[in-house]
Amino acid sequence: MNFSEKLKSGKFLVTCEVAPMKGVNIAKVLDEEAEPLRGKVDGFNVTDMQSSVMRLGSLPVCHLLAQRDLEPIFQITCRDRNGIALQSDLLNAHVLGIRNVLVLTGDYITLGDHPGAKPVFDLDSVTLLKAASTLIEGKDMNGNELDGKPEFCLGAVVNPGYDPMELQLIKMEKKITAGAKFFQTQAIYDLETFEKFMKEAEKFQVPILGGIIPLKSAGMAKYMNEHIAGISVPEKYINMMAEAKKEERAKTSIQISVELIKGIKSLCQGVHVMPMGWKHTLELLEATELA
Asked: What's the Cα-to-Cα distance from 65 to each of 136, 155, 271, 276, 291, rounded to whole Å?
């Protein structure tokens, strides 16, 4: 089964994020990040210049993964391209054998390594989903007929910990109306809040994959609490990481992530792991018995 078929089957899915390098050392992402997870995950999200840092693009990496029979999920953000270029890249993706697309608005330019670059944001995540759905129907966003229609399984993101939660649910519904067939969430550390969110989101009857970002340090946890909306790392996890010796941090991080994954497993249809340079994803999946 491909990713879209697995979503419809109700199978508990595992996806993992891989990040293209700042350069052309493609072997690192293909051989060191993706290949060890062959047969362990159901899809590889390829980030689109994550955190507004100039990198190798998501599209060619997705194509190379598809050539290796490692199913890619093409992340596409609205930050850097206008509506013409975004639609063109979606057509490019189909021609290159890519069938899964995750649509995001994108981080703001000032977060990255080119703060003087001009942001575009011609579309946002909802309007880009609408544009992609229109392409699937055989027309561009201005109603012009296409010579051949692309096929995509469209996804979007949601932040279960955002306050007020109602705003996320409203936007989630708009994304579903625009064409989203699945969701991946922001990192989850508060299982009680996630359970409340899932009870509210149950009415949408759409697959949701809970996000996991393994903690590298207590400092990382504190930074996310202070700077990332919707993320709340409980004090007990911060203390666990603070008390762990440097050589034991990976083991402690795996312990925390396993606890979180076991907690969300009965609540949603999958888990989305975002390693962010962390080197122990396979160990985590094995410890969780998902590999």
From this structure: 23, 19, 20, 19, 19
Domains of the chain, CATH where assigned: 3-214+266-287 (3.20.20.220)
- The CA distance from 33 to 22, in Å, is 15
Q: How far, in Å, CA of 73 to CA of 61, rounded?
A: 10
Tokens linked to 264: 């969300």
For the chain, what is the radius of gyration of the CA atoms?
A: 18
Q: What is the pLDDT of residues 79-131, one digit of tens each?
A: 999 999 999 999 999 999 999 999 999 999 999 999 999 999 999 999 999 99
Residues 6+ positions from 47 with CB-CB distance below 8 Å: 17, 18, 19, 20, 55, 58, 75
Distance from C-alpha of 264 to C-alpha of 189, rounded to nearest angstrom: 10
CA distance 89 to 84: 9
Give the residue carrying structure tokens 């083991």.
251
Q: Which DSSP state fits 10?
A: T
Q: Give me the amino acid identity at 169.
A: L
pLDDT tens, residue by residue, 36-78: 999 999 999 999 999 999 999 999 999 999 999 999 999 999 9
The residues near 31 (Cβ < 8 Å, ≥ 6 apart) are none
Extract the tokens encoding 54. 């100039």
Tally Cβ neighbours within 10 Å of residue 9.
12
